[in-house]
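Lecture 7 notes: from sequence to structure.

We start with a single chain of 178 residues. Read the sequence below before looking at the structure.
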Amino acid sequence: MSSPTATVFIQAAHTAQAAIPAASPASTSPPIVELARVAGHAVSLSLSYLSRGLSVLARSLLVPLPLLYTPLLYLLGPVIAFAQVLLDIFVFAPYAIVAFVARNVYPIYVFVGAALICAALVGYLARMISVGLTYAIFAPRSPPPAFKHQETAREMPYLRDATPKTRMRKRVSIKEER
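Now the structure, written as tokens:
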């Protein structure tokens, strides 16, 4: 006969053997793959615990901030109102004026731009027609012969001998006034 304690130990031994995974003979993956899989699960688990811890820490630090909003906004109320007035005067109003003018002047701008482009094309076409008619009516003249200046030996110092030119002294007379 077996005692109840022995039965529990035998059953525990059977369940312990069933809980330990044994390498099946049909498994074809190398052990490094199993190791990588276990390491990936460990990293994932540690990152989840770390992120939960950081989120709890951040929440505990940020909870008192809404309590500070009301007194801080009450103290900064005049500064905020003054900044809004300055923004209205120096940013929003000029922008609204410029946007209004640009929106209303845009059709005139487009019309004047198109007119200038058309005028430039018509002017260029008229110039080309007048140049063509001028060449058709009046034959182009041949250019006048080029006049070549003949340099004398006095003007070409390289044709003279290599002696340097001496300067002649100018005669100056000083007359006294009476």
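Helices lie at 4-19, 31-62, 65-75, 77-137. Keep this in mind for problem set 3.
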